[in-house]
Amino acid sequence: MLHVENFTMTHQQDLKVLIPSLSFDLKPGDKLALIGEEGCGKSSLLNWLRQPDQSLPYVEVTGICSNSFGRTVWIGQTFPAQDEGLTIEAYCFDPVLAEQIDYGYFYQLVSQLGFDPDRLTSQQLMGTLSGGEKLKLQLARTLALEPDCLLLDEPSNDLDLATLNWLGRTLASLPAAVLFISHDEAFLSQVANRILHIETIHNHKASRVHLVNLDYETYRSQREAQFQRQGQLARKQQEEQAKQEARHRQMHDKVQHQLRQAHDSSLGRLLAKKMRNVKSVGRRLERQAEDMLEILIQEDAILVKLPCPHPLPASKWLINEPDYVVRLEGRALTQPLTLEWRGQEKIGLVGPNGVGKSTLLKQVRDWLTDRPGIRLGYMPQDYRQVLPQDLTPLDFLQESGSQEEKTKLMTYLGSLRFDPDEMRHPISQLSGGQQAKLLLLKLNLMEVNVLLLDEPSRNFSPLSQAEVRQIFRDFPGAILAVSHDQLFLDQVCDRRLALEPAEKQ
Fold first, then answer.
1. How many domains does the chain have?
2. Closest by alpha carbon to 440, among 485, 403, 489, 393?
3. Which residue has the higher pLDDT, 250 or 233?
4. What pLDDT digit, counting tens, does each position of 241-256 carry?
5. For position 422, which CATH number holds?
6. Rounded to the nearest 5°, which phi and psi values hold at 16?
């Protein structure tokens, strides 16, 4: 069992409490999903559970963690940098792990994950593989250790649809305990039997934690019903409060007027006493207002839209390439495909990991850059390609540097649930979800009419996914998106373009 007691996480820079006094137990068979708004500390918590004695960047933590599981393994959001330079063979047959891994089971897992076992002895560097291929080998190596506790940070990222379904079934059936973070609603519904929700309240100034023994769908529906009930009660309270305050103002103004007109000292004393009572009622109403139910705000709310003042004609060809083959360094990755894309069409690129979807997206970007009439927006998997990590969100977004522009940008960032301190943090200190929101805002300000998106939903919290899909669905321009998110493909894309691997030579 993994036991956590009184865990508290505080941001070093602004001293804001991100996670207040969290206590819970993780037992064998638990599939505990950790969800919450972008930047709430989920990944930091998972990292601390892996190694409670370590210091974490940007935050201070206190609390107790005891772990009686025999073998706990961890997979982070990004592939370890120190392994990028290893060959596939060196990574898979690491002599340090060789005695711990069941290689019969490992080969079985590799095949189930859709990775060619013949490549396990390849001298190809791990850093040259796609994100999905690296994750497949990482998962196979991890599961072959037969752990009794898994800590997984976004294990659904980068995986193709078939592998994602396989992973969901596999994790759900494991006797091991699993604590995981995921943005993918379908994956959450498939795996989780408990939910740990870190929720921000009071306009992002405080946090609270919910721990429930429910599957994700049940928790989400109950939460929505709670929002509706509390919203109705809060609005009723506010209406009654407004009536009381209106009556109080009338009484205050009446007594004040009488005081000014009074010429008799005895009457003046009576009116002064009455005014003291009126002021006492006013103070009571103020306290009452503080204790009222708040109309809950969806902490993940994304209020920014994507305007398109210069949409392309629906009939305009963006790309018309029959029998196109995606190539990388002269090597064919795909079978020939018909690549056709018009001015307002939304296309989802699908296919197995390593087939060249991200490569194709970059090639399309090169083709369309500087084309007349095209305002191109690009969201890569790795935000570091387009977000300068040393700048603050405000510095990144500002163009003129005027106070008027700064005020406008702070309003925009506030609509994305950035608090004033986070607006001035270096981008490197923001979570992946916060960086995704920032990039979305940048695309908004650019007034793009063509979007190239590489896994656009991967870093948004599951509770904001529906809003993200709505934003892209309502975008009147063209979209070409690599995605393994079934709901995104179903609700946003007009059609799918499936990439098939090239024939083996």
1. 2
2. 393
3. 250
4. 778 878 878 888 887 7
5. 3.40.50.300
6. -75, 135
